[in-house]
Amino acid sequence: MQTVSIYAPVVDKLALVEEQLHELCQTDIADLDPLLDYALRSGGKRVRPALTLLASEFYEDDQKRSQIMAAAVELLHLATLIHDDTVDNAGMRRGKPTINKLYGNHVAVLLGDYLFATSATFVCDTGVIRVIRRFSETIMELASGQLIEFFTTFDPSKARRLYDERIYRKTASLFCTSAESGAVLSGAPEHQVQALRRYGYNVGMAFQIVDDLLDIQGDASEIGKPVGNDLLQGVLTLPTIMLMERYPEDNPIDRLFTSITDGGPDVDHLLQKSLDMINGSGIVPDCFAVIRDYCSEAAAALEELPDCPPRRSLLEMVDYIRERSR
Amino acid sequence: MQTVSIYAPVVDKLALVEEQLHELCQTDIADLDPLLDYALRSGGKRVRPALTLLASEFYEDDQKRSQIMAAAVELLHLATLIHDDTVDNAGMRRGKPTINKLYGNHVAVLLGDYLFATSATFVCDTGVIRVIRRFSETIMELASGQLIEFFTTFDPSKARRLYDERIYRKTASLFCTSAESGAVLSGAPEHQVQALRRYGYNVGMAFQIVDDLLDIQGDASEIGKPVGNDLLQGVLTLPTIMLMERYPEDNPIDRLFTSITDGGPDVDHLLQKSLDMINGSGIVPDCFAVIRDYCSEAAAALEELPDCPPRRSLLEMVDYIRERSR
C-alpha cells in the first residue's frame, strides 16, 4: 500500500510544507545549513504533517495556519529522531548514516535542540495559545516517554506496568497533537476536535505496536537496524512482554538480559531463540489483535465526522499503518 | 558583593519562583523526580529570574505572569547547562557532579529536553504570544550559539569574526529575553521595553566576557572547572583572541592547538605559557575596558526608566556582574 492515494486531498499543501522545511536550510550561519539540509531530507513518509492537514480539511477556517502546524509537527518529529539516535548510539536511520554518526554527539544534541526550538517557534505563528501549549506539552511527553523507556530497560515488571504510558508518550502523543491541532486550527467544533484527537491517539498506539513487531520480524535492510534491536537494548515491547508472561519459567529473555549486562557469550544465540519463540507462538497474532482494536477505535472516532475525501483518507491511513508489518 | 541587596525589591517573588521550580519535582513518573530535584537544586544565583522580576517592577499589570516567566527563564537556563555539560563531557558544575556524570549522557540529553519543554509550557501560561514566541527564538539562539562555538573551535580567524554573534546567542540572548519579557508582561510602554531589552543585551555581553576572563584567571576550585578549560577545548575567547592578534608570530596558542589535536606532550606547558602571557600583558585591562563599555551601555539604557528601587537594583546588578572577576 502506498501513501499516494491517502495524501491525495492534501498533496499540494504537503508540497508547501516541504518547501517551508527546506527554507529553514538558509540560516545566517553558513556551517549550520548543510546539517539542516541533511536532517530535513530524511526521506520520511511525512505521516504526521499529513495527519494535521487531513484533520484540518473538514473546516476551512485558515489553511495557512494548519500548514505551519504541519511543518512544525514534522520538525518536532525529526528533532526527536536526532536525539533518539544520539542517546541510542544508532549509526543508521532509513539507510543513511545518522547525524550523531556523521557529525558526533556534540553536534547532534545541539542540532536537535535547535530543531525543537524551531518547531516551537513555527507553532507560535499560528497565534493560537491552545495549540502552542499543547505542542510544548507534547515535547515534554516525548522526552518523558523516552525516559520511561530508559528507566524500564531490563526490568520486565516495570516495563509491563508502564507499557501503555510509555508508548502513549513516546509515540501516540505526537499523533494526537498532530490531529487535534489540525482540527482546532480549522475551527472544528469541540466534539470533532476530540474525535480527531481520539483518532490520533489510537492510530499512534497502533503505530508503535506495529513498530515493536517490525523489530522482531522485519529484515534488517528494510527496517534499517538489526532485528531484535529493542531486546538487545533491554527495551521490552509488547511481543517480548507477552513471551515473558506466557512462559514465566521457560523463556530465554531473562538469560539474554543477564548475558547482555554481564557481557556473556550467548547473546546471539539467546536473541535468536527469543525471536524464534515469539514468531513460533501465538504471540504475533495476539499483538495483531491489539493493533486491530486500536485501529477499530480510530475508525470509530471518525464516525463523528462527515463523510468526505479527507475522512476516507484518514480511514485509509488506519489500514496503511496496520499493514506496515505484514 | 552579594546579591542580597540587589534582589531586595523582589525577594518574596523570587522565593515563590523557587517554590514553583520545586513543585516540578512531583511528576507522575517516580524515577524522574529525584533527577529533577537534583537538576533544580543547582545552587545557581538565579540572576536571570531576578532580572525578569526586576524588569517587571516598573509597572504592576499582572505580577503573576512575570513570576511564571521568571521560573521559565531559570528552567531554560538549567536545561542549557545540562546539555552544555553533556556535549562538553564536563564532570563537575558548581562543585557538584553533573547530570551526565551521575546518570550518563542518555538521561542528560532527555532530561534537558524535558526541561526545555517544561520551560516552554510554563511560558504559555502567560498567555502572551509575543513573549512565548520570543522565548522559543531564544532557545534557537542558545542552541545555535553553542553550535557556532563548536564550528569555530581551533579556528582563530573564524572565532574572531563570529565572536560577538556567538556570545550574543549563547549568553546575552537569554539576558535580553529575561528583561524584555518582564517588561512586556508588566505592561511597560514600548520604549521602556526596548530600554530593558538593551539593558539585558549589554549586561549579558559583559557577563560572558567576565566568564571568559574567569576561565583564564580564576582558581579551579572557585570556578568549578580547570583553569584554561576553554583553550583546552579549542574555544577562543576575547582574551585569547586578543593574544593571537597582538602576537601573530609569537604566541603559544597555535602550538598549543596543534599539540591538543595531535595529542602532543607539551599541552600543560603551552597552556601555562598562554595563560601567563595573557595575564602578564595588557590584555586583561583591555578586556575590562570592553566589559566597562557594555556596562556603561547597560546603565545608560536604564535612564529611560523612572528612578525607583528596582532601577537601583538593576544598576547594582551591573556592578555585581562587572566585579565577579575581580
TrEMBL record, chains A, B:
This protein's UniProt keywords: Isoprene biosynthesis, Magnesium, Metal-binding, Transferase
GO MF annotation: an example: prenyltransferase activity
Pfam families: polyprenyl_synt (PF00348)
Gene3D superfamilies: Farnesyl Diphosphate Synthase (1.10.600.10)
Superkingdom, natural source: Eukaryota
GO BP annotations, alphabetical order: isoprenoid biosynthetic process; quinone biosynthetic process
InterPro entries associated with the record: Isoprenoid_synthase_dom_sf, Polyprenyl_synt, Polyprenyl_synt_CS
Keyword Transferase annotated: yes
Cofactor field: Mg(2+)
Entry's family note: Belongs to the FPP/GGPP synthase family.
PANTHER family: ALL TRANS-POLYPRENYL-DIPHOSPHATE SYNTHASE PDSS1, GERANYLGERANYL PYROPHOSPHATE SYNTHASE
Name assigned to this protein: Prenyl transferase
